[in-house]
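User: I've been going back and forth on whether these two constructs are worth ordering. Before I decide, could you fold them both?

Assistant: Sure. I'll take them in the order you sent them. The first construct and its structure tokens:
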Amino acid sequence: MIPEFLCLFCFGLCAGQGSITTDGEFLRSYPPSPSLQTPRFPSLSFRGFPESRRGTKSHPELCFLPDSFPKPSLTAWPSSVMPPKSNVTLQCQTSTKNVNFALRKGKHVLESVQSQYSSVGLAEFRLTDLKTSNAGEYTCEYYRQGLPYVSSQPSDVLLLLVTGDFRKPSLQAHRRGEATAGDTVTLQCQRPDNVFGPVMFALLKAGAAGPIQVRTPAGKETDFSLQTVTVSDTGNYSCVYFLMKAPFWASHPSDRLEVRVTAPPGAMSRDYTTGNLVRLGLAVIIVVIMGALVVEAWCSQKESPRGSA
């Protein structure tokens, strides 16, 4: 009973700030923020969505009831650290089906949409031709289709960085990036001398959807530690540094550094031994099967003359 009462109460609050259109749709009527009057995302599009409500229509006010819905997840593909003039897709996903989604940058709703993927709890927001102004903290949320518009908790913050505002740092590794599985690999990222202000460092790996690690610097450099590395840690790494607050300017990425992780010699010899045993076992099985076939054929030939006699 209490949740239903809270929903109605929340709807009443929202209705007091909105209006009803001729088609019965509840609309938001709070004054648009400057960021919505002058969009910072002129190239924002939505893949697989119906035409967004723009112009004379507003977006529904999102009422928030704590713990009403589990919060969704927000991820970036191919990465949350992108070069300018590239494209990125932000995916908002939840286990709750048949809901509408909203994408926010900071506190401002960029767009509320009904996804054709809502039956599986997924919405995709595509940002094209990225610029420095696109960098920032993004969240997403979802709300039920129909009145009252009760919103979920917002997702964890996704920091989108657009590189190219500062000179690139340098990235170095001990032992030239060569390591044995189980070792600790330390990568040191160092920024140029002429950079001032509070910055953070991010370690990137080619193919990863976001930074591997994010650290505050000690002076103009910081160390990234890869603990107990495995062969899967082999790859090309780079680093960037960025402002900790808006406008979140980020540097060019450092030159790529290849890290190679090899299995320890003992493990390799054990692998070879295991492989040899497997191959030997298969050979024995094949020999037994072939021997059985030969015996069967010999017995058949021996019984044939008796049958004819």
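The second construct, handled the same way:
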Amino acid sequence: MERTQNNNLQGFGNIVIFCFFLFFTILLSWPLFFNLDSYLLPSYLETIHSRGYIDTQAVVDRVNNT
């Protein structure tokens, strides 16, 4: 009877360790969730990201010709 109880407690300990690992991972990486676009987009793409479109001469000519 005691061996079964010890095995169950070992499994519970693994769950607790996993929960602590998950908690501290989220705690240490929370800035990434707020600035993901600035980490993923290079600086030359910031103007495209802020305007929402690519302002090239070909696009301007195509719009003007329609």
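Notes on the second construct follow. The helical segments are 2-34, 36-40, 46-51, 57-65. Residues 1-33 form one domain.
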